[in-house]
Amino acid sequence: MAPFLRMPFRSLSADNLISRGAAGHVFHISPNIVLKCPTKFDNGLPEQIKEMEESSKKIEAEKAVYRILMEHPHPNIVQCILCVPEGIFLRRMESTLQERLSQSRKATIPARTQERWVLQLTSAVAWLERLGLVHGDLRPANILLDANDNIQLSDFDATVKPGAELIVASEPFCKMDENFETPPAGPVSEQFSLASCIYTIRFGHWPWHELDPRARGEKLRRNKFPSVSADIVFGDVTTRCWHGEYTSIASVQQDVLSRLGRSIAKDEALMQVAIEEIATQYPLLRAECERFVATQARERSS
């Protein structure tokens, strides 16, 4: 028999599939919820069996990160609602930052929106740092946007502790030396990724987007970066991050806030209000997930 994708629950089908990535699949559950689950095949070929094993490892690693984040939520990190053997129930978002930026060629994104995104992304990455985590794969495809056009950082299957070896290297969002080696996970690696994300937000395209991948990689490995002079607000932040000049992501966050005329104290107060709002919504979302799982269990046993 030919191999075919195994659904995590009987009621789901290919019609529910939203996206597929290296870690697994994302399925639509309701207008509020999606399920991220490992890739599984029935009658899988040898290479598919290897893919299944890797996918399961990635999802389990991501669950571990989300369990930490459930205890320490942040308003700009996608909300995990429930972890089950089949996968991870997450708050549903509207689109990825990459999709939104690709649309900007037709409709320019307002400067205030760009500034908000830079602040929100930096805040989310600094929060991970505070928790002793390094995202490890910061790029627009892994940054989501909610219905209010706010950043929601996601995809933690490559997240590691500071000092660990990075799991992935996605150019132009990962720092590499001339031997194609990456630095240990930490402020230097995250700053580089953050800089390329900020540049992409501000200019609407990747650094050296006009070059082919090999030529672009050569430029970045030799620390040759495109001009940021047109960005009078964050240009210097971007350059300093590319060169790893900040001692921490928290320092980047402080610099971003100061350039926007905001204080850490006010920002943390606003964040606390947002966290409390997340807490009020959580019980209803969890109950919805638990009802879905219970219904699937009954159908399986009938």
From TrEMBL:
Highest taxon, organism lineage: Eukaryota
GO molecular function list: ATP binding; protein serine/threonine kinase activity
EC class: transferase
Domain Protein kinase: start-end pairs: 12-285
Leader sequence residues: none
One Pfam family in the UniProt entry: Pkinase
UniProt EC number: 2.7.11.1
Catalytic reaction(s) noted: L-seryl-[protein] + ATP = O-phospho-L-seryl-[protein] + ADP + H(+); L-threonyl-[protein] + ATP = O-phospho-L-threonyl-[protein] + ADP + H(+)
Complexes and interactors: Component of the EKC/KEOPS complex composed of at least BUD32, CGI121, GON7, KAE1 and PCC1; the whole complex dimerizes.
Function comment: Component of the EKC/KEOPS complex that is required for the formation of a threonylcarbamoyl group on adenosine at position 37 (t(6)A37) in tRNAs that read codons beginning with adenine. The complex is probably involved in the transfer of the threonylcarbamoyl moiety of threonylcarbamoyl-AMP (TC-AMP) to the N6 group of A37. BUD32 has ATPase activity in the context of the EKC/KEOPS complex and likely plays a supporting role to the catalytic subunit KAE1. The EKC/KEOPS complex also promotes both telomere uncapping and telomere elongation.
Protein name: EKC/KEOPS complex subunit BUD32
